[in-house]
């Protein structure tokens, strides 16, 4: 009995020693992180995000950007071109995510797209691309605030000035975005996913049950949706659709910051695989079903497709998701400023006054500028299309092709396989096609801005109900 007890104690001690050794090794790895440096006692450990929580954040931030605009793409270009375009963009952005994961493992010091640009092109590349990324995240946060204001207007039947609703959205985003680590923010990703999925499924089921969308002829008039296999869009309209699809996957550059906070950067491939699979499946399903039942009578965003009452219900269900989108984009933009300002300093992770001052200032600057852009630009939807076409495509496609060439171009002297040559062609193709989408999408966005300016029916800081136009 004594020997048995001693054996159990030794086994227990061995397990405890092994666990302590594993913990010490993991802690040492986190303290020596190439981006966040050492973690002092009582400091903030940023590198503790699990891959599945990262998948929830990445899925939510993607869905919040694009899912409500996908049906309109099918309506514009037709079912067949719309599906083909969506799948091609999904494949290219999935490859971009894969390249980001591999690049982070090869270059542990990369904590943002600006850091990757520094490796490729030096200090100028870091400042230019990093600045563009921050602007893109801020504009996206502003778009989320406006979307939340649309939801507030729809739910309350324009119960207050629209500016008030945008301010409320900004305050909520600022409070939630101030949560410092992605591991803690990730819970919002789950909430946002449940919210947006319930809203989308509700509007889809409502349109299918009603048999006709809002805006279709009255029930006394025979009507059936006109489903076009191939549409007849103008070049500007088709280009805008390309920009919309890239924008639907436009959170790819945020993956740099997400992978930097993972416990194991090697797990990012799993994170990206889950996120890309989920959002592509949803984009296809929701886009096809809504287009089949609504035809050309699809609202944009799509939550208003099933009529006034269902519009209020769907926006009520989707409001948390829209606020989470504004929060996540605000967090990513603030985190970029924060790390850029304090990197290499103990204040980056220390629980110091400087740490909190810089973090608070970063959050405040990001949400206030997002608010000013959202309210100050009367044609904000067109502006975000332009920013997305000019910058999102470069950060989602061309830059990742350049990253792959940076790491693998020297292999051309030793690797003569067909597979390597195919990868060279594929990454060159991504750079070329991405450049075409940048030019074409920008042209379409500029055309839209010109039309908005000519109409003169939009006003900065206006109180009008912005839910009636969607």
What does this structure look like?
Residues about 1-30 have low confidence and may be disordered. It is built from 14 helices and no strands. The protein has one domain (about 40-455): Amino acid/polyamine transporter I (Up-down Bundle). The protein has about 475 residues and is mainly α. Helix content is about 75%, strand content about 0%.
Mean pLDDT across residues: 84
Known CATH architecture? Up-down Bundle
CATH class: Mainly Alpha
Shape: globular
CATH fold node name: Amino acid/polyamine transporter I
The radius of gyration over CA amounts to 24 Å
The assembly state of the depicted protein chains is single chain
Largest sheet: none
Poorly predicted segments: 1-31
Q: How far apart are the first and last residues' alpha carbons, in Å? A: 77 Å
Q: Helix segment count?
A: 14
Domain unit count: 1
InterPro entries: AA_transpt_TM
GO molecular function: L-amino acid transmembrane transporter activity
Subcellular location: Membrane
Family: Belongs to the amino acid/polyamine transporter 2 family.
Q: Which features would summarize this protein structure in a list?
A:
470 residues, mainly alpha, Amino acid/polyamine transporter I, 73% helix, single chain
In short:
InterPro entries: AA_transpt_TM. Belongs to the amino acid/polyamine transporter 2 family. The protein has 470 residues and is mainly α.
Task: Give the topology.
Elements: H1 2-31, H2 51-66, H3 70-77, H4 79-106, H5 113-156, H6 162-177, H7 182-210, H8 235-248, H9 255-260, H10 268-294, H11 308-342, H12 353-376, H13 380-408, H14 418-455
């Amino acid at each position: 009995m004594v020997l048995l007890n001693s054996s159990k104690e030794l086994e227990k001690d061995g397990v405890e020693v092994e666990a302590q050794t594993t913990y010490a090794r993991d802690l040492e790895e986190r303290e020596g992180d190439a981006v966040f440096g050492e973690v002092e006692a009582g400091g903030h450990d940023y590198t503790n995000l699990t891959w599945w929580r990262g998948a929830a954040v990445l899925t939510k931030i993607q869905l919040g950007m694009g899912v409500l605009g996908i049906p309109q793409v099918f309506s514009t270009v037709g079912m067949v071109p719309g599906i083909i375009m969506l799948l091609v963009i999904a494949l290219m952005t999935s490859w971009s995510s894969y390249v980001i994961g591999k690049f982070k493992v090869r270059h542990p010091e990369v904590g943002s797209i600006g850091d990757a640009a520094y490796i490729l092109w030096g200090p100028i590349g870091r400042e230019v691309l990093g600045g563009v990324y921050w602007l893109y995240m801020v504009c996206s946060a502003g778009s989320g605030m406006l979307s939340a204001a649309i939801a507030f207007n729809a739910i309350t039947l324009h119960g207050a000035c629209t500016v008030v609703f945008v301010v409320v959205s900004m305050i909520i985003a600022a409070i939630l975005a101030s949560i410092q680590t992605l591991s803690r923010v990730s819970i919002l990703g789950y909430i946002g996913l449940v919210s947006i999925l319930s809203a989308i499924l509700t509007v889809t089921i409502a349109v299918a049950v009603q048999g006709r969308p809002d805006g279709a002829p009255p029930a006394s008039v025979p009507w059936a949706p006109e489903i076009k296999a191939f549409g007849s869009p103008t070049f500007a309209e088709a280009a805008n659709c390309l920009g919309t699809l890239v924008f639907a996957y436009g959170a790819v550059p945020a993956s740099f910051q997400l992978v930097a906070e993972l416990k194991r950067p090697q797990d990012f491939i799993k994170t990206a695989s889950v996120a890309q699979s989920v959002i592509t499946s949803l984009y296809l399903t929701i886009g096809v079903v809504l287009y089949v039942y609504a035809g050309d009578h699809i609202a944009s965003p799509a939550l208003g497709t099933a009529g006034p009452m269902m519009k209020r219900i769907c926006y009520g269900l989707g409001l948390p998701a829209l606020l989470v989108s504004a929060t996540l984009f605000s967090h990513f933009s603030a985190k970029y400023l924060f790390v850029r300002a304090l990197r290499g300093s103990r204040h980056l992770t220390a629980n110091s006054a400087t740490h909190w001052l810089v973090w608070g200032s970063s959050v405040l600057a990001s949400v206030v500028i997002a608010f000013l852009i959202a309210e100050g630009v009367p044609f904000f939807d067109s502006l975000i299309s332009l920013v997305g076409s000019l910058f999102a495509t470069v950060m989602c496609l061309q830059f990742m092709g350049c990253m792959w060439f940076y790491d693998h171009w020297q292999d051309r002297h030793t690797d003569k396989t067909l597979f390597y040559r195919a990868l060279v062609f594929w990454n060159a193709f991504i750079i070329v096609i991405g450049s075409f989408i940048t030019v074409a999408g920008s042209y379409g966005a500029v055309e839209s801005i010109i039309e908005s300016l000519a109409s003169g029916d939009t006003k900065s800081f206006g109180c009008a109900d912005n839910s009636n136009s969607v």
